[in-house]
Amino acid sequence: MEELYVVFHGQDRVAAGSRLDAALAAQRLMGEAGVLIFGPDGRGVDFDLSGGPEAIAARLSPPAEAPRGRGRPKLGVTAREVTLLPRHWDWLASQPGGASVALRKLVEAARRENEGPDRIRAAREAAYRFASAIGGDLPGFEEAMRALFAGDYAGFETRIQAWPADIAAQLRTYAAEAFGPDMTEV
Q: Which pLDDT value is given to residue 144?
């Protein structure tokens, strides 16, 4: 799935798409004040917009793969250092399949267990970053952010209703998972 970047000119969303789409849209507005690009995590993005479309595309294309080191390259496995206490190493060594298998199982279990809270936290942070960058001076900003982090969907919606339509719509996009499952249907 391709990550979505958005371009704002003042309070208006003028483009949305891939990194290249966003960069080219921003380049067309170069020289005008108030052009901001936001990444999928709500962070402001700064692209080098010099040169023509071909130059921008070359800079934004993914880098060539670096030679792989130790590990199982075909599986995407890379060797890294892990620091544990001796009792942890003893326990890992006694597990079926050894330390690597046990660590992978533990990490996967933790990921599954924290998936919901991690998505909620990430959505809240993305929404906050975006809102702070583009709407920090809008009426009700602080109250809207308090409602966002409190998980108060109704309060959040109430406070952003009077905001410019494109800003509120994009903020809702970033905050889509910020209120937990089924909370946005209140």
A: 96
Task: Give 65-75 pLDDT, tens digit per residue.
Answer: 666 555 566 66
Work out the mean pLDDT of the chain and round it to a whole number. Answer: 87
Using CA atoms, how far apart are residues 176 and 183, in angstroms rounded to an integer? 9
- Do residues 22 and 6 touch, judged by C-beta distance below 8 A? yes
Q: Range of 95's domain?
A: 84-185
Instruction: Return the SS3 of 45.
Output: strand
pLDDT attached to residue 175 = 95
**What SS3 class is residue 107?**
helix
Residues 108 and 156 in one domain: yes
Do 165 and 10 meet the contact criterion of CB atoms below 8 Å apart?
no
**84: amino acid identity, one letter:** L
pLDDT of residue 184: 45
- 7, 60, 78, 84, 85 from 95: Cα distances, Å: 51, 44, 21, 15, 16
Question: How many structural domains is the chain composed of?
Answer: 2
AA identity, residue 165: A
Cα–Cα dist 124/171, whole Å: 10
pTM (2 d.p.): 0.73
Structure tokens at 135: 């709407």
Quick one: average pLDDT of 74-93?
80
CB contact at 8 A, 153 and 186 = yes
